[in-house]
Amino acid sequence: MAKCEVCGKEMSEEDGCGTSKIHIGGKVFDRIKCGNEEDFDSDMAENERCHDCGAKKGFYHHWGCDAERCPACGGQLISCDCEDVFIKA
Ligand SMILES: [Zn+2]
Ligand SMILES: [Zn+2]
Ligand SMILES: [Zn+2]
Question: What's the 29 CA to ligand 3 centre distance in angstroms?
Answer without folding.
Answer: 11
